[in-house]
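Consider this pair:
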Amino acid sequence: MSEFQKIDEDDYFRLNEIFCIWLMKKQNIHFEDLSFKDAKKKFKKFCKRYNKQKLDALYYEHDKLIEKYQSDIQSKHKWNFK
């Protein structure tokens, strides 16, 4: 595990990909389905769990987590190009 650093609500945009993965994998929610207000509430919950180190170890290895789930964090919208 890389060196642990606590996070807070100011990290909302910086950790958006990590947060989106957590929402999908642990909460079964797509980020784009949340209002901004609801997303901020969920991110606050994510911060608490993250800071208590209650997440799977991979969540603290940001680059590895993103690499593993990169295709999952794309928009769920299916484009209909012809």
In short: The chain has a mean pLDDT of 89. Helices lie at 16-27, 36-51, 62-69. The first helix runs from residue 16 to 27.
